[in-house]
Amino acid sequence: MQSFDFILFGATGDLAMRKIFPSLYQAYADGFLPHIGKVIATGRSLLNVDEFKDKMSHKSKIHIKNCDDKKWEEFTHNIDYLSINLNETKDFELLKEKINSESKNIVIYFSVSPEFFIKACKNLASVGLNDERVKIILEKPLGMDLKSCQAINNEIAQYYNEKQIYRIDHYLGKESIQNLLILRRFNPIFTSLWKKIILIMLKLAFLKL
């Protein structure tokens, strides 16, 4: 794998601590990430690098099964932290300074509310972080409804082409969603009714209490 920089917006959030950093660590431990790879964690919290790594040790490491302390130390050695306001263009100048100018791959992961997607993309583009080296990953939800989703996609298209944009929804991996396929196949009622000539839309609602 070529050298790369991985930039994470929302690095102090729950999703990053419980899912993203453990996944990155596992990829590193399994040899899928090059040793020269750099992770630039960003968040609104005013922390220095050591304080952020201490936070990771308490809130992220606990979600890794059979974590090797030596591998964890190696992995976190490649992590830097920058306090950033996604609405402030000047903060993106500081972000650009932290990126390896020779990096051939830059992955920017948006683990933040969709209300920040457009402004952050505009600010990234303003400092040149939208060239062909850059890929952006948009974490769900992509807006609140169809209209807001279309608005986000249309605005982001001004700064990145479609080949640079990845949209993911980790809810699609939840058992309740995966089980829909089994339910349709083996339940006689749904097997007969859930067909494209009958079913117009399937809407699911998850309530977080």
How would you describe this structure to a colleague?
The model has no long low-confidence stretch (mean pLDDT 89). The protein is an alpha/beta fold. The longest helix is centred in the first third of the chain and has 16 residues, at 14-29. Strands 3-2-1-4-5-6 form a six-stranded parallel β-sheet, sandwiched between helices. It contains eight helices and six strands. The protein has helices at 14-29, 49-59, 69-77, 89-98, 117-126, 146-156, 175-186, 188-193; strands at 4-9, 38-43, 79-83, 105-110, 134-139, 165-168.
Q: How many helices does DSSP assign?
A: 8
Radius of gyration, rounded? 19 Å
Fraction in beta strands: 15-25%
Tell me about the largest β-sheet. Answer: 6 strands, parallel
Brief characterization of the structure:
This protein is α/β, with parallel strands linked by helices and 209 residues long.
Pick out its properties.
single chain; 209 residues; alpha/beta; six-stranded parallel β-sheet; 8 helices; 6 strands; globular
Q: What's the helix and strand layout?
A:
Blueprint: E1 4-9, H1 14-29, E2 38-43, H2 49-59, H3 69-77, E3 79-83, H4 89-98, E4 105-110, H5 117-126, E5 134-139, H6 146-156, E6 165-168, H7 175-186, H8 188-193
Parallel strand pairs: 1-2, 1-4, 2-3, 4-5, 5-6
